[in-house]
Amino acid sequence: MNRTQATGVGFIAVILWALLALLTVGSAPTPPLLLNTICFAIGGTCGLIWTHLSGGLRLLLRVRWYVYVFGTLGLFGYHALYFSALRLAPAAEAGLIAYLWPLLIVLLSGLLPGERLRGGHVIGAVIGFAGAALIVTGGGGGFQAQYALGYGLALVCALTWSSYSVLSRLLGDAPTQSVTVFCLGAALLSLPLHLIFEQTVLPQTVTGWGATILLGLGPVGLAFFVWDIGVKRGDIQLLGAASYAAPLLSTCVLVLAGVAPLSTTLGLAALLITGGAVVAARASFAAGFNSTGG
Question: What string of DSSP letters covers 147-163?
């Protein structure tokens, strides 16, 4: 698989994550750590089946222990924070703050060996951040104090996932099959914490169970495997730039589902987020073109 193909595979994760907020809302009132347990158990089990069928079980024995610790904590931390944020604040606003991670990926990736942060990446990041900020603030209306904790957790969530994605590049020798262990590890870590800190509340309806199962299969399952391939073998800065589409897509899904209201702010923010992605993506394409002597 070449760099371009790996980048395309990584884009699949962005599409799946566009459904994350909607499915999280649909899984209520299941508490965050229990939701973590169920979803990662589903995603990890599916990954284990794929790893077995692909003959990759032996590869898992070659992975260093600290890689498993890093991956487990990354997946566990991001989703525990994300699910908590969406339980404590409106889904659209909290989701958009959490989706500042693409901006942070573009900026942090410039610190990686062999990568360089270019002016176009910075300009694109600023434009994209302005679009996300416009949606989050409701066009300048500001935050509501009762949602401050949810918004704060969403911001930490963004920092967690961007750091995880960038540092994953440094662990590029770990096979994608290792994500299976990350998922199962996150489920095993979430369960005792749930039993200590939360009251057990399972999904109450068929729709709630459906949303929870789909979370485990897609945004909290397949997405990690394709994202792992993208950030390790593809263009991480281009993936970070293209990921600006995730908050827009997620918001549109919430609007179409009737979870979030449609507003004029969304249109302007869409232009800013898309424009930021285009500017940053052009910087990556230009860098690749110049490096080939074109």
Answer: GHHHHHHHHHHHHHHHH
